[in-house]
């Protein structure tokens, strides 16, 4: 069951906003409603966020993303539609019940940090716990743990005004983590930070997410940030979600011109990963096979090298054509003399890192998962293609499609 | 008041009997609620006179030293010295007793004004309709010439300290309301939102976020209330409220230049003392609260964290 479930959510500002929903459903445009003094901020937004997922909502200012995130914890109530968080239907809750959900289920990190200037870093980090009614010593213990997680150990006694912007947002993050909610909402959380610090915080957030398994809804106007953080991304424009997909889906298969225009400036080498461009190997050599079999496979497929794998697809290494030919001439029966170590990369290695790996390796790169199993290969030509013309990037190539080399 | 029938012919604008109407209202109030106003009058004049007696009980010089010490505490030793000289001057011109009577009147009026003003300001900050309703009333109270308030007060409370205090409250109230509203409205909306996002109740947000962050502005309002109360307290001498105002009034009726200036300069000395003291308390309140809570945290070491390498007194 998804942690956040947004179903046909509408938010319209103005007098008697309900009347706008029906009109929008029956095809009225945003401008039609504006003439009547209604301002539709979010229209027909549906999405699910799975447990432990980082879901990024990306859009420019005025696209309705800030309104959308505020409906997840009920800071704004939707005009129509339903919104559930961790199994609680936010749209039906009021007052006390809503506050309970905010205390226990969903915390938030703000663009301009929103710290209390008259309270210490430790007290700020413990704010949610104080509201939850924990006693002082428990609050301080948990706040300390949270500060440690974000790398602010020892700063608990300082005032926010004494900290730099990046450190202040770490306090904001610690405050959300300390509340120990399953869901975290992050509203342009890194947008006010300078680029280097922002990068650092993004990496830290990903680390924390791996460590703690939080479900994160992240709002940003920065596509690079969206692609770096997001397991999936929702692109918003003028109050509507125009596409939801993984980074690769959005880059390679933009739903419309708006998205396409948006992604054309993305630095693909930093966003695309090996898993997006790798190919199924044309041929593989079993580790129990000998040089003769290798020689035949190389000739048949016009390859200069072959990956050698075990029965369970564990990568053993690589053999090269000239060495195999020598071994065949000498009449050797096993591969031991010719097996070389292959250059391996991970599924999530970015293109920019693939380039440096490819520079060191004459043969194709082997893409392996965390268990050392071969998942695909990246020949140099494929890598060059991915860098060049986006339309040649393919997600999957069957063995029957030969790679021209 | 007779209505001249010729007015309409002369000006083209009919005579609106505002004065008659207001007079009628006050007459009615006086007749029907007279007992209530007597009670109010007795209460405020009782409080004021008791406080004045307390202030006049010790030897004047001892009190001056105490006041100067307070000035030193909230600001610095220089201001302590200035306060001592200013207040000692009041003794030397033989206006101490009057000054303490006026101070008592100012303090009582200020406390009552704030008890009304701060909640009203909070309500106005929360609701635009309350704000819109309150604003013109505040304008009326503040811009109506101060003397005008004295006449109906005498009607309702007769002569004495009571009408003086009530007129002072009316005159001094508006900045308390306005600056409370302003202070609360100026609190960073995102911080208030953070309070909501973590599940705080409106009361927790008011106590934990809005009031502390609005405190400097609210304290500026308190300072304004005190200063306006002092200026009105002197005018209230006209209706027999006594104190420095009484001395000024009698100097006017006797054309006594000397007494007038002695009392007037005493008002100045008292005003400077009250203004600088409350301004120092207000401006420093937030900073000091932070510093104290921070220092306590460090000393107690309860949080188990070491203090940041920042000088303790640094301002942010």
TrEMBL record, chain A:
Q: Which UniProt keywords apply?
A: Amino-acid transport, ATP-binding, CBS domain, Nucleotide-binding, Transport
CBS domain boundaries: 278-335, 338-393
**Xref: Gene3D superfamilies:** CBS-domain, P-loop containing nucleotide triphosphate hydrolases
Report any one BP term from Gene Ontology.
Answer: amino acid transport
Q: Does this UniProt record's set of keywords contain Metal-binding?
A: no
Q: Name one GO cellular component term.
A: membrane
Annotated ABC transporter domain residues:
4-263
Pfam families in the cross-refs: ABC_tran (PF00005), CBS (PF00571)
Q: Which domain of life is it from?
A: Bacteria
Identify a single GO molecular function assigned to this protein: ATP binding
Q: Which family does it belong to?
A: Belongs to the ABC transporter superfamily.
Under what name is this protein listed?
Glycine betaine/L-proline ABC transporter ATP-binding protein
UniProtKB/TrEMBL annotation, chain B:
Q: Which SUPFAM superfamilies match?
A: MetI-like
The topology of this chain with respect to the membrane is: Multi-pass membrane protein
All residue ranges annotated as the ABC transmembrane type-1 domain in the record: 99-278
Transmembrane regions? 57-74, 79-96, 102-125, 146-173, 225-248
- Compartment(s) where it occurs, according to its Swiss-Prot or TrEMBL record: Cell membrane; Membrane
Which BP terms does GO give this entry? choline transport; glycine betaine transport
Q: Which PANTHER family match?
A: GLYCINE BETAINE/PROLINE BETAINE TRANSPORT SYSTEM PERMEASE PROTEIN PROW, GLYCINE BETAINE_PROLINE BETAINE TRANSPORT SYSTEM PERMEASE PROTEIN PROW
- Gene3D superfamilies found in the cross-reference section: MetI-like
The principal location of this protein is: membrane
Full protein name:
ABC transporter permease subunit
Question: What are the GO MF terms of this UniProt record?
Answer: amine transmembrane transporter activity; carnitine transmembrane transporter activity
């Amino acid at each position: 069951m998804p942690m956040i479930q947004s179903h046909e959510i509408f938010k319209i500002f103005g007098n008697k906003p309900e009347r706008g929903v029906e009109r929008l459903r029956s095809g009225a445009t945003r401008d039609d409603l504006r003439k009547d003094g209604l301002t539709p901020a979010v229209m027909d937004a549906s999405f699910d966020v799975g447990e432990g997922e980082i879901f990024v909502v990306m859009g420019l200012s005025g696209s309705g993303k800030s309104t959308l995130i505020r409906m997840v914890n009920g800071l704004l109530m939707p005009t129509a539609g339903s919104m559930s968080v961790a199994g609680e239907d936010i749209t039906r809750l009021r007052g006390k019940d809503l506050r309970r959900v905010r205390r226990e289920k969903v915390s938030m990190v703000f663009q301009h940090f929103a710290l209390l200037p008259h309270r210490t870093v430790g007290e700020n980090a413990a704010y949610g716990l104080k509201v939850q009614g924990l006693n002082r010593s428990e609050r301080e213990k948990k706040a300390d743990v949270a500060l440690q997680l974000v790398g602010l150990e020892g700063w608990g006694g300082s005032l926010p005004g004494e900290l730099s912007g990046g450190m202040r947002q770490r306090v904001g993050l610690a405050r959300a983590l300390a509340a120990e909610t399953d869901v975290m909402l992050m509203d342009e959380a890194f947008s006010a930070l300078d680029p280097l610090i922002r990068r650092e915080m993004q990496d830290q957030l990903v680390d924390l997410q791996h460590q703690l398994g939080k479900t994160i809804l992240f709002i940003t106007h920065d596509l690079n940030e969206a692609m770096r953080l997001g397991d999936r991304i929702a692109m918003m424009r003028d109050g509507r979600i125009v596409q939801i997909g993984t980074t690769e889906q959005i880059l390679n298969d933009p739903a419309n011109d708006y998205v396409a225009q948006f992604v054309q400036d993305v630095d693909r080498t930093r966003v695309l990963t090996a898993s997006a461009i790798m190919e199924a190997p044309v041929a593989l050599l079993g580790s129990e096979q000998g040089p003769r079999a290798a020689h035949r496979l190389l000739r048949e497929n016009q390859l200069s090298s072959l990956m050698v794998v075990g029965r369970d697809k564990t990568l053993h290494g690589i053999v090269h054509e000239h060495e195999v030919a020598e071994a065949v001439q000498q009449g050797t029966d096993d591969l031991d003399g010719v097996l070389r170590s292959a250059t391996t990369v991970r599924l999530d290695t970015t293109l920019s890192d693939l380039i440096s790996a490819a520079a060191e390796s004459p043969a194709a790169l082997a893409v392996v998962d965390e268990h050392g199993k071969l998942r695909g290969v990246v020949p140099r030509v494929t890598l060059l293609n991915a860098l060049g013309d986006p339309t040649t990037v393919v997600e999957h190539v069957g063995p029957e499609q030969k790679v021209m080399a | 008041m007779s209505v001249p029938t010729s007015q309409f012919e002369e000006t083209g604008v009919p005579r609106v009997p505002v004065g008659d109407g207001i007079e009628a209202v006050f007459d009615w109030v006086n007749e029907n609620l007279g007992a209530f106003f007597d009670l109010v009058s007795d209460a405020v004049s009782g409080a004021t006179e008791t406080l004045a007696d307390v202030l006049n009980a010790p030897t004047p010089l001892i009190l001056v030293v105490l006041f100067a010490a307070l000035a030193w505490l909230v600001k610095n030793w220089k201001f302590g010295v200035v306060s001592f000289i200013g207040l000692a001057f009041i003794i030397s011109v033989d206006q101490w007793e009057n000054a303490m009577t006026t101070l008592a009147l100012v303090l009582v009026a200020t406390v009552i004004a704030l008890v009304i003003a701060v909640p009203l300001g909070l309500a106005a900050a929360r609701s635009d309709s309350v704000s819109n309703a309150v604003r013109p009333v505040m304008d009326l109270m503040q811009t109506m010439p101060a003397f005008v308030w004295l006449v109906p007060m005498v009607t309702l409370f007769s002569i004495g300290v009571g009408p003086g205090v009530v007129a002072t409250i009316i005159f001094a109230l508006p900045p308390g309301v306005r600056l409370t509203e302003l202070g609360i409205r100026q609190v960073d909306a995102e911080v208030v939102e953070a309070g909501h996002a973590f599940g705080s109740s409106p009361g927790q947000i008011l106590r934990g976020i809005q009031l502390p962050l609005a405190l400097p502005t609210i304290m500026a309002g308190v300072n304004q209330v005190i200063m306006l109360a002092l200026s009105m307290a002197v005018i209230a001498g006209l209706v027999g409220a006594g104190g420095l105002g009484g001395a000024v009034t009698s100097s006017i009726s006797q054309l006594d230049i000397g007494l007038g200036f002695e009392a007037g300069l005493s008002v100045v000395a008292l005003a400077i003392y009250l203004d600088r003291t409350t301004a120092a308390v207000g401006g420093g309140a937030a900073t000091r609260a932070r510093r104290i809570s921070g220092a306590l945290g460090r000393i107690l070491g309860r949080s188990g964290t070491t203090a940041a390498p920042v000088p303790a007194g640094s301002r942010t």
